[in-house]
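Its record is retained below.
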Amino acid sequence: MESKDNVFKWKHYEAVAEMMKERGLNISHTTIMRWVHEFGPEIVKRIRPYLKPTNDSYRVDQSQR
C-alpha cells in the first residue's frame, strides 16, 4: 500500500484543469491538486459509512464465450 505522502504522486491534474476550462472555469492544475490534498481525506471520512464492504474476490461467467 502506498504511503499517505505518495498517494497522489504522478497523478495528472492537467486533464481535469482542461475539463474545467471547457466548462468556463480557468483553474490551474496545481489548484486542483491542492483541493484533493485538502478535501480528499474529509470526503473519504464522510462517505466511508455508506460504502458496502467488499473483498478482492470476483467470479467470471465462462458461459459467455
The helical segments are 14-22, 29-47. The two ends are 35 Å apart (CA to CA). The mean pLDDT is 80. DSSP finds two helices and no strands in the chain.
